[in-house]
Amino acid sequence: DEATAATLKQLLLNLQLPVTLLDGIIDWLDTDSETISENGAEDAFYSRLEPPYLTANSAITDISELRLIRGFNDQIYALLSPYLSALPDRTAINLNTAKSVVMTSLDKSATQTSAFEQDLLQQSNTIVSEFINETAVEKNNMQTVVQNSSYCRLQSKTTVNNYTLSVDSLITRQSDEDIRIIQRLLVRSEEHTSELQSPRASR
Description:
Elements lengths: L1 H13 L6 H9 L13 H4 L27 H7 L12 E2 L5 H5 L10 H6 L7 H7 L2 H4 L4 E2 L4 E10 L2 E13 L2 E11 L4 E5 L1 H4 L1
Parallel strand pairs: 1-2
Antiparallel strand pairs: 3-4, 4-5, 5-6
């Protein structure tokens, strides 16, 4: 949608990354076979690579998919990925946990050294109405920011002798009584292999 595209474009600008990356992302997500611009790419482009592959034509399920998209390399991915997440549902940005570079991407007129970043975002009692009043977010999409999150990521590591197991879990919380693990990544250090499991498969 236009609001999300505008926010991502501003985030790329804030990070001094090429805004043309956005076209590749859009083509990766949309369901047609037409490129959005000369900077985009569809199956015709990816099928000529070695090894060849096709566009997802659906929502990104893991942020690492960005590495498959035209224009991305390891350096760009390393710079951008800390500020993005891939979730099953559309979610607003949590004011209390988002990095300042993400918050400033919601407002073109804001800079990372602006007053609202220094005085507002650093306060523990930040509220949505204050942020909206300080920026142009209200003009774009008042549902863009919230004060809590329905999703969180839990990372843990267990070491026994020479064996280390790292677990990266994506958790959804709809209420205090409804908390579920919806994705789990297991990494075994000595084998250098990873296995993505659903909670059912990991029991």
